[in-house]
Amino acid sequence: MNGRREDPRLERLVDFVVQLAAGDLAARLEPSPAADSVDAVAMGLNMLAEELQVLYSRLEQRVTERTALLEQTQTELRRLALNDALTGLANRTLLGDRIGQALARTERGARPPAVLSLDLDGFKLINDSLGHDGGDTVLVEVARRLRTIARPTDTVARLGGDEFAVLISDTTLEDALRIAERAMEALRLPVQVGDQVSWAGASIGVCCGSRGETADSLLRDADTAMYAAKARGRNNIEAFQQAMHTAALSRAQIADELRTALTTDQLVLHYQPLVELATGRIVGAEALVRWVHPQRGLVWPGEFILIAEETGLIIELGQWVTLEAIRQLAQWQQEMEKPESFRLHVNISPVQFRSANLASFVQRALQWHAVPASSLVLEITETGLMTDEVEIVQTLHDLRSAGIGLAIDDFGTGYSSISYLRRLPIDTVKIDQSLVAGIDTDPRQHLLVAAIVGLIDAVSLRPVPEGIETAAQAAQLHALGCTHGQGYYFGRPVSAGEMTGLLRVDAAQRTVHSDTSDQ
Ligand code: C2E
Ligand code: MG
Ligand code: MG
Predict the structure, then answer these.
(1) Alpha-carbon torsion angle 442, 448, 453, 454, nearest 10
(2) Distance (Å, rounded) from C-alpha 196 to C-alpha 179?
């Protein structure tokens, strides 16, 4: 120690450096009046602190900006992952989350949520006629309308394609059905696409959740109800019932078994004679598919054709039916004296008519078995034809120009107009059995059928009544001008072998008849 007292400013300098180092960049040193070299150091440190403070706040601002950007990107990513890109509606994942949350709230006393499952009717037609951009415009408009009917607490979602869903939280089935009605009304209004106008009706399934249920099962049940609504003829609302789920399960089982049936020769064709009403002579037959089920025995088409249509199995099934029927026809024709006067009818589903290659498939099958096109008649149901689908109409024209006969099946069940039907290239109209039943007992029914036969005649088509069960019905239909008909009265559907026998008897009777008339 030299005994000299140290300058107190040095101590303050040291404290100041410690303050800065601790992050207090706002601290400053007061210069002394001495204005000597110690003060110069103090001033220098003040400037350094100033500089550091500016740098630091810039850095802080940049960090804040970057963090905000990162959060924005994360929100956007989350939005993209949870929302549908075209309409901005929630997607399946987000809807599932929200249903889960709404169900969880029921544990805390809230009322259950309900889900509306919506599927647009005929959207494929819209896409085909207006193009994909037009289709997108319709989807965006549907999304907008659904948003307007939903409350802010509800979630409107697009599940893909033309499928939408609305989650209504804390509700009752009655309220959910009311909202479904409003959705239906909102969608009924036309949609303007450029200079065209389009309609986007929907089938709606409604299901109310219950405690302990999962989001998946609630959505699945709403879907099941939607399919039931569609099956009832589109533009309908259906509330879910447990029986629908059971039916869906057994449909799935039938579909599985049918898939096996197709590869293991479990299908057979039966044939029902088509006759000349005046004489009862056989002029043709209708091929009707049967399923020889390993456990259940003979299963009728009413149980599996619809399921085959829903699952697309009908294409394979239909091809088998067509090939087998034409093969059998070729075999019968070889035995016949006048094969050209016998026509075999085959039922074709609208789904098959929609597939582009039906006409060429049938033509190839005919050529392969050397059967003339005029010996084959394809039947399509009236309801299958009540559409403007270009594919179906095009296929009808292709088949007709190949010389194949075309019949409308089950006429009178679909309320289509004769004037529409006459524009189609068909030659035969099969009058449904529900119209034929009762003509011999109910005079009004008789009048109705008389009018229908008259109309069919007027547009130069051939009326063929089906489901004739009594001699009286046959006689009356003949008197009304029907030349041909079909029904249990003349013959039930029988196996190919039995049909061969019937054809032989018929041929023998013709020979006897022509022999006696020759004398
Ligand atoms: P459909 O084409 O209208 O065939 C006539 C149906 O009426 C047949 O029922 C036939 O057995 C029944 N039937 C005929 N005469 C009478 C009668 O006098 N009284 C009563 N009560 N019924 C009569 P089936 O064989 O059960 O076929 C039902 C429907 O399934 C057919 O109606 C047809 O739409 C469809 N179908 C049958 N086979 C095929 C097929 O190979 N492909 C397709 N796509 N559909 C088929
Ligand atoms: Mg038929
Ligand atoms: Mg029919």
Answers:
(1) 130
(2) 29
Tell me, yes or no, if the pTM score tops 0.85: no
> Could you say which of 205, 240, 275 is where a domain stops?
240
Structure tokens at 339: 């094969």
Residue with tokens 């030659």: 427
Tokens in use for 191?
């949609």
The answer, yes or no, to whether any atom of ligand 1 lies below 6 A from the CB of 409, is yes
Token pair recorded at residue 357: 């290659």
The β-bridge partners of 119 are 163, 203
| Nearest atom of ligand 1 to the alpha carbon of 381 | 34
Contact present, 352 and 396 (Cβ < 8 Å): no
* Protein residue with its CA nearest to atom 19 in ligand 1: 467
Judgement on whether residues 265 and 409 belong to the same structural domain of the protein:
yes
Closest protein CA for atom 4 of ligand 1: 288
Kindly give the number of the ligand 1 atom that is closest to the alpha carbon of 466.
15
**Using a 6 Å cutoff on CB, does residue 303 contact ligand 1?**
no
Q: What is the pLDDT along the chain (519 residues), one digit of tens a residue?
A: 444 678 889 999 999 999 988 889 899 988 889 889 889 999 999 999 999 999 999 999 999 999 999 999 888 888 888 999 999 999 999 999 999 999 999 999 999 999 999 999 888 878 888 889 999 999 999 999 999 999 999 999 999 999 999 999 999 999 999 999 999 999 988 888 888 888 888 999 999 998 889 999 999 999 999 999 988 877 899 999 999 988 888 888 999 999 999 999 999 999 999 999 999 999 999 999 999 999 999 999 999 999 999 889 999 999 999 999 999 999 999 999 999 999 999 999 999 998 879 999 999 999 999 999 999 999 998 878 776 677 888 999 999 999 999 999 999 877 666 777 778 899 999 999 999 999 999 999 999 999 999 999 988 999 999 999 999 999 999 999 999 999 999 999 999 999 999 999 999 988 877 766 544
Give the whole-angstrom CA distance, residue 143 versus residue 305.
34
Helix (H) or strand (E) holding 143: helix 123-149
Do 264 and 234 lie in one domain? The reply is: no
d(CA 277, ligand 1 centre) in Å: 20
- For 483, list phi and psi in degrees, rounded to 5: -95, -35
Contact of 379 with 430, CB cutoff 8 Å? yes
Residue nearest to atom 21 of ligand 1 (CA): 467
Residue that finishes a domain, picked among 69, 84, 101: 69
Instruction: Residue 216: give the domain boundaries.
Output: 92-240
Q: What is the DSSP string of 253-296?
A: HHHHHHHHHHHTT-EEEEEEEEEETTT--EEEEEEEEEEEETTT
Residues with Cβ within 8 Å of 510's Cβ and at least 6 positions away in sequence, in order, are 281, 337
* 153 and 188 inside one domain: yes
Number of structural domains found in the chain: 3
